[in-house]
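pasting for the record
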Amino acid sequence: EKSSIPVAHQITILTISSNSKIRNAREMYFGKNYDNELTERLYSFDKSKLLASQQEFEFENEKPELVNKYFQWIGVAVLPRYSRIELSAATDKYNDYKEYVLRNYDYRKPNDYHEYYRDYNHLIGDLWSVPKITVGYFDDLKKIISRAKPETIFEWIKQDEQLRKTLEENNETLPNTEALLNLRGKQHSRKIKGANLRSYTKWLFATTEWLPIESQNRKSVPDKCCLSKTITEEFSPFVEKPKVEIPTIADKLEMPENAIENYLVLVGVHREISSFSIAALYDMLSSLPTSDKEGKAARRIYREIISNFNENRVDINHPSYKSFLKDGKMFCQKGT
């Protein structure tokens, strides 16, 4: 059977949503009316993205598989669309993501002009600006992350190969994704291409407050969470333990429990404190004297860092390190 050629992109076909809105078919998704419970849950905050039932289109006498094929042909999607967007200084937390990209770039690789930089500090010495970064973005991802339950996110990762790929590889996977760099003394801009550009999707998952934690009735960023058995509620609010029913979710998704743990790591949770960033580590140490005035958590945190953190990872030029060295305080035993 020959596959149908999709409707040309310049042709707009209107459809009806489950809340009776009229929208372009290329903005719509199959929901529970078409046995697609996952996407129904992902977009529960916006019913206008979900396609109305067959009955609404007066297709009730047609075969469901033919109706599905028709709607797919005109552009209705099963899972969140993944397309390019352009980030700039006007984008929320643009500077944070830009910093993440530049600090985590593999400096063993050249830029598009075959130029090498020793490390982040070498590049920053020549960098004038990063005016824009083009990345892949799943439709309404920020809203999905902030509203969906962890088990829904894990089911999405399981079903969506594009999502799984960018999380596992931790780089941009779409063509023509890049960071544009303006360097001092250079007439033409340089580019960090997609394969060398850290995943914006993974960064958003890791730095958005959406993951329930054991210590309090609230949510935390995964980047502040750790799976290590040595991490207890006493480490809160500096390091948190995810509150996720791994056996229950594993059973529901018909996956082994270690696969769910792997998904937690994919969205930014740390297996050990040793993988925390330098910024997170020293910001935590700097905050201890004011947030943990009696030093109850400090002793355990110091012990955990000494036991598990590789001192060779410390960047002595990092602002957080310099700030702690200059103004940081540590608890110590009286008289020593």
